[in-house]
Every structure is written in C-alpha cells, then in structure tokens.
Amino acid sequence: MSSLENILTFCVNLSREMILSGANLERVHTSIEIICRAYGLKDVSIFLLSTHISLSAYDKEGNYAARQASIKSAGINLERLKNLNQLSYKIADITPSPRLLEKMLERSLETRDYPGWIILTARIVAMSCLCFMFGGGVIDLIPVGIVTALIHFMLLILENTGLDKIVINSLTMFIATIAAIFFVYLGVGKDLAAVIITISMLVIPGIPLVNAARNLLCGRENNGILQIFKIFIETMALGTGIYVALSILKDYVTITGFSAPLATPYLLIILSFIASMSFGVVFRIAPKDLYLAGLGGALTRISLLLLAPANFSRLLYMTISASVAALYAEFWAVKRRQPSTYFTYPSIIPLIPGDLFFYSLTGFFFGDFQRVTSYGTNCLLSLLGLSIGFVLSSTVSHYVRRIRFACSM
C-alpha cells in the first residue's frame, strides 16, 4: 500500500470512529483537512454523511487514490472523541510515517470506560433529577429508577440484535410505558405523566437533533435534511410505543395536564448540575471533566430561570439559553483544544422539551386537540429555539475557525 493510500485509509477510519463517538460533521471535516494539508495532499475531495464517508486526493507526485466507508450506527463516547480529535492535531504537528498511522489510531481508541454498574447508576441519578424537574414527587423516583434500569438493559440487548432504531424505540417505550402504568396503578408512584416523560428522555434523540440543525445551517444542507427526517421518524416511533401502551391500558391511565416543577429555583439549578454531570458519565466524559459538564447544565438552567418569567416568547428565551450553552461549550473547546461537543451535549440537557412532546402526544390520545395545538406548538418552538441558538453560536465559531484555517494556509 502506497503512502497516499495509507493516509487516506487512516483518514477514513479516523472519520468513521469520530462519527461513531458522536462528532459533528464539521469537526470531522476539519480533522481530515488538517491531516491532508500536513502531508501535502492536493485536490482533496471530502464527502461526508452521517452514514457514509468518501475521500480522494492526489499526492505531490501526482498519484491519485480514493477511499470510502459506510457507518451503520453512531453512539456517544466523548472521551474517545476527545482522544481522536487530539490525535488529528498531533499527526498534523509531527507528520509521522504513513505506515504508523493505523497503530496510532488503535492506541487512541483504547480509552478507559466506566464499569457498567456506574453507567447504570448515573442514568438512574440523572433520571431522578429530571423527574423532579418535570413535576414528579419523591415516590415517583421508585418507578423511574426501576424502569430506567429496565430500559438500560433492554437497550444493551436490542442494540446488539441489529434491529433498526425505529423498532428499538417503539419496543423500548412500549414496554417501559406498560411498566410505568403498572407501578403507578399499584401505588408505587403517583404522577404517571412525570414518570413517562422522564424515562422517555433516555431515548429521545435530542443530541442528534442539535447536530442535524448544525449541519443544516453550516453548509451541509443535504445531510441536515436527511438527519432531521430520520430523527422525526425515530421520535414518532418512540411516540407510537407510548401511544399503543396507553391505548391497551387506557382504563388504568389518568393524565391531567402539565405538572409544574415542585423544586425551588435553587434546587432546580442543583438538580441540573447533577443531571448534566450524570449524563457526562453516560456520554463517557473523563472523571476530571465531569464538573464542567455539570456547570454547563447549571448555567443553562440559570439562563432559563432568568428569561422564562420575563414575558419573552418561548422561541426567544430558548434561543438565548441555547446560545449560552453553546458559547460555554465553545469557550472550553478553544481553551482545552477539544471538540465543542465534549461540553455541549451535557449542557443542553435542561433544554430538551420531553414534557411538551409527551403532553402533545397524550392530547392526541385523549382527543383533546386544543392540548395538541398548545403543547405541540410550544414543543416545536422549543426545538426551533434550541436549534437556532445553538447554531447561531456554533456557526460564528465555525466560520472563525474556517477563516483562521484559510489564513494559515
């Protein structure tokens, strides 16, 4: 294999691992450009989708090569993503022999992971915090904890079966909703809505939505549109699972309306800190950086608490709060020379409108189309504000990086 082929093979494998670890396409594209530039490659053509990578280039002698790869499914492992991002800069700085690149990639993939019981504990802690945020009481923590553990093990089993994400979402939320109704009916839990909203947060594709919006407004329209359509289908599958379960057990279901948080503003900030830090564990952030994940969630919550009561429109205060979360992430990304997603994903947890989505769905279930219109509109405005705020901040950073990259050539 020639040096050019070694470089392109490495770039494709690096890109695939970065996407599998949760990287946005802008970050992957920049990493490839940095490496190809370091080795003096010319006429580099990069085509990226969340499911496909294609790369071609010429070397200094005029030799041509191309590589491509497909991606089946992506997850989130932010510690691995951080290592891969640092690897791209390291290679650009030292330009090692192309024959050594694959071994360097293998070493970067050898990250320490949290034991399974810690991941499960973190999920239960995060869901318990969210339960309070969604208006649940202390007794509701029991079904939330049990069903969270159920979903945790179901996902471990189902994701290894090769089933499509649509099927996994539907089946998972169907069984989880049945279990939630069962516990609340027996008196082990009081607020069914808070319980179902909370456990649905484990599978709602909030993070992919942010990446899709970013791609859509950062020059990757085709990929953004495809991702948004995919997210819409997966979310509807999630809703279908809940809807079918409610339909089967409708005689045992009582859902009134929106449950306001029982916690005080100060407690909400603390809960947001703990929830985002716990999601940091789920996202495989290094232990020494978990406090930054928690601070991002707390800062986002403070922004919401300051803006929501000020008679701003939902779109406006969600946009501003999302911008705060994005700017916080960009600050630490620049300071630590790490991908912004490392800090963004935990920070936006307080912004994901799982409650509004659920009440829109139950409005449809009960034939209350006024509820569907009210909650559905607010849900869409929240998602739109989240996307716009995040994209506005990250787009500015994106073009600043692009200008700096162009000026350094």
Protein model, in words:
The chain has a 3-stranded antiparallel beta sheet, covered by helices on one side. It folds into 2 domains: 3-111, no CATH class; 162-167 and 206-399, no CATH class. The chain is mainly alpha-helical and 409 residues long. The chain starts with a helix and ends with a helix. It has 16 helices and 3 strands. Strand 2 and strand 3 (64-70) form a beta hairpin.
Find the structural class using helix and strand composition.
mainly alpha
Helix and strand succession?
Answer: HHEEEHHHHHHHHHHHHHH
How much strand? 5-15%
Computed Rg: 22 Å
- Taking pLDDT < 50 over at least 5 consecutive residues as the criterion, the unreliable ranges are none
Note the main sheet.
Answer: 3 strands, antiparallel
Strands of the biggest beta sheet: in what spatial order? 1-2-3
In total, how many domains does the architecture comprise?
2
Average pLDDT level: 84
What tags apply to this protein structure?
409 residues, three-stranded antiparallel β-sheet, mainly alpha, single chain
Gist of the model:
The chain has 409 residues and is mostly helical. 68% of the residues lie in helices and 5% in strands.
Topology:
Elements: H1 3-20, H2 25-38, E1 42-48, E2 52-58, E3 64-70, H3 78-94, H4 101-108, H5 116-133, H6 141-158, H7 165-185, H8 192-200, H9 206-217, H10 221-248, H11 265-282, H12 290-307, H13 314-336, H14 341-347, H15 354-365, H16 369-407
Antiparallel strand pairs: 1-2, 2-3
Helix pairs in contact: 1-2, 1-3, 2-3, 3-4, 5-6, 5-8, 5-11, 6-7, 6-8, 7-8, 7-10, 8-15, 9-10, 9-16, 10-15, 11-12, 12-13, 12-14, 13-14, 13-16, 15-16
